[in-house]
Write a structure and sequence with these properties.
Blueprint (H helix, E strand, L loop, with lengths): L2 H5 L5 E7 L7 E8 L6 E5 L7 E7 L9
Antiparallel strand pairs: 1-2, 1-4, 2-3
Length: 68
C-alpha cells in the first residue's frame, strides 16, 4: 500500500445494504478505509439496517473513470 493510498480521505470500499426483496434498491450505509498497517480496515456505518437483507462491501470506484 502506498503512502498516497493511506493519506487519502476517500474510502477504499463502500458498504451497501441489499434488502431481501426482489428488485429492491441497494442502500449505501457506510464506508471503510485500510488501517495504517494494511492488515485490517476501519469501518464507519452511518445507518444500521434492521430489515432482513445482506451487507456487501465493494471497492470504491473512481468517479472520473480513471483506472484504480
Amino acid at each position: 500500500m502506498s503512502e498516497n493510498t493511506r493519506n487519502t480521505s476517500a474510502p477504499s470500499h463502500i458498504v451497501w445494504f441489499a434488502p431481501d426483496r426482489e428488485n429492491a434498491p441497494w442502500t449505501r450505509i457506510g464506508a471503510q478505509w485500510p488501517t495504517k498497517n494494511g492488515k485490517s480496515f476501519r469501518q464507519v456505518l452511518n445507518v444500521f439496517p434492521t430489515a432482513p437483507g445482506r451487507i456487501f462491501v465493494c471497492r470504491n470506484q473512481p468517479k472520473n473513470g480513471a483506472a484504480a
